[in-house]
Task: inverse folding
């Protein structure tokens, strides 16, 4: 069931992040480093706006909405529209605050674009999660892909046809997100704001979700603290330079990470609600193995292909910094995404958000300290190295806790097989004299990437044939058998 659900969620989990990855490359060819830095900082600020405004409601929805009886669902729907309307003000304030933090004099179009992008993206993001909680996979896909895909197309058209500035890119994204928002409001039957509000529903959601807000805000620092440190210490141009490699590394590993997590957690919640904690843990552990099996070889492959990939895709003015930063950022992103989409899911399931907050605090402090010290000692690459160490500390603490407190069955044997298969893949690729082949950059990437995939798949299949057979049976099992 898990693998079948994973494939159903695949378009939403792969297409959107992949296009965001492509967009991060494309914008380097149209914007100077300082303008690129502004654009990516607004993107990061939108994530923070969602954390402060709607993450508590979305997590409550994902955890409990599917379990609510009919009358409680009506109360939920009555509260939802009021929550969306009220929190849009918070989103606008965060977007404006991001522009102030950048220490620039924003124009009226930039202010409007930043607010429109942030508000439409936050609400669409929540509604897509509600669709996910109801297993409305098509609507979830619309919410997850409309902005990144259609929005990027409109943004690119605006940047090419009007002006290569952050405001026009943001307006393009906001336009597509507004259309997706209209679709989701109708499909999910979001009720109009009514009075009196079902305050008990909101209190329950706040009680469950406020710790998630705190954890998410601190987690935002873990992911974006390096941007704040670099902008404060070295300026917008340095921010633009580090943002390319850092953003690419995080997005690349994030694509692989979210492929499995979207399907595994709802299934685990259903098993846990039925009283089977062991089955819920088994499903999360199985999803964790699939996650690691995707992230580890993808990260290793990106590190090996950094040179030709950056030469092919990144604008020349960004290439030198990106070649240094991208491998480090990919490893840091891989570690962090495995923790978020595996270990953190256990904490959410067991409602131990307080522990997640404590671990996020430690990681965030390490990120700020590590990126600051690294920037002073080793420049932009040193700042990323500091973040990598911080991510490793956070992951070690989180996995250690769930094993100690809940006796969670960490899949050590399967994880070891994944790392061994990835190591053999790397060894084989490093033995090939690629410099002797007179092929272009595209063909080099295709050949080395294809060989790496083939070697990894064969070795992993040999090391763990039983797991491969189980996966195949689940994939081809008829829907009626679920």
Result:
């Amino acid at each position: 069931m898990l693998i079948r659900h994973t494939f159903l969620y695949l378009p939403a989990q792969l297409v959107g992040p992949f296009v965001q990855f492509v967009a991060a490359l494309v914008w380097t060819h149209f914007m100077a480093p300082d303008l690129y830095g502004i654009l990516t900082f607004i993107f990061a600020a939108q994530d923070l706006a969602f954390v402060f405004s709607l993450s508590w409601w979305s997590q409550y929805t994902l955890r409990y909405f599917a379990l609510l009886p009919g009358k409680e669902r009506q109360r939920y729907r009555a509260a939802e529209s009021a929550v969306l309307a009220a929190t849009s003000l918070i989103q606008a304030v965060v977007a404006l605050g991001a522009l102030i933090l950048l220490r620039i004099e924003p124009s009226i179009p930039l202010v409007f674009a930043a607010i429109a992008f942030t508000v439409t993206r936050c609400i669409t993001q929540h509604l897509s999660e509600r669709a996910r909680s109801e297993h409305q996979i098509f609507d979830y896909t619309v919410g997850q892909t409309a902005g990144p895909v259609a929005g990027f197309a409109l943004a690119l058209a605006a940047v090419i046809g009007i002006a290569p500035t952050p405001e026009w890119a943001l307006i393009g994204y906001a336009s597509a997100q507004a259309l997706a928002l209209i679709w989701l409001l109708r499909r999910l039957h979001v009720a109009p704001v009514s009075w009196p509000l079902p305050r008990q529903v909101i209190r329950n959601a706040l009680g469950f979700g406020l710790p998630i807000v705190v954890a998410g805000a601190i987690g935002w620092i873990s992911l974006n603290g390096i941007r704040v440190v670099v902008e404060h210490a070295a300026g917008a141009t340095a921010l633009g330079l580090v943002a390319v490699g850092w953003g690419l590394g995080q997005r690349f590993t994030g694509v692989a990470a979210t492929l499995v997590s979207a399907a595994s957690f709802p299934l685990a919640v259903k098993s846990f609600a039925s009283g089977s904690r062991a089955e819920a843990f088994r499903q999360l552990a199985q999803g964790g193995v699939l996650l690691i099996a995707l992230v580890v070889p993808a990260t290793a492959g990106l590190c090996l292909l950094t040179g030709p990939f950056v030469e092919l895709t990144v604008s020349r003015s960004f290439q030198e910094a990106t070649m240094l930063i991208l491998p480090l950022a990919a490893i840091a992103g891989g570690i962090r995404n495995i923790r978020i989409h595996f270990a953190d899911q256990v904490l959410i399931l067991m409602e131990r958000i307080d522990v997640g907050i404590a671990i996020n605090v430690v990681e965030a402090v390490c990120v700020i300290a590590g990126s600051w010290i690294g920037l002073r000692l080793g420049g932009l690459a040193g700042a990323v190295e500091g973040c990598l160490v911080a991510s490793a500390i956070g992951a070690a603490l989180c996995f250690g806790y769930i094993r100690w407190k809940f006796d969670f069955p960490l899949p050590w044997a399967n994880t070891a097989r994944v790392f061994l298969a990835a190591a053999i893949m790397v060894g084989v690729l490093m033995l090939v004299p690629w410099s002797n082949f007179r092929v272009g950059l595209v063909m080099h990437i295709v050949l080395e990437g294809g060989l790496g995939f083939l070697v990894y798949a064969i070795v992993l299949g040999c090391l763990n044939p039983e797991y491969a057979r189980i996966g195949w049976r689940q994939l081809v099992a008829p829907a009626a058998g679920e």
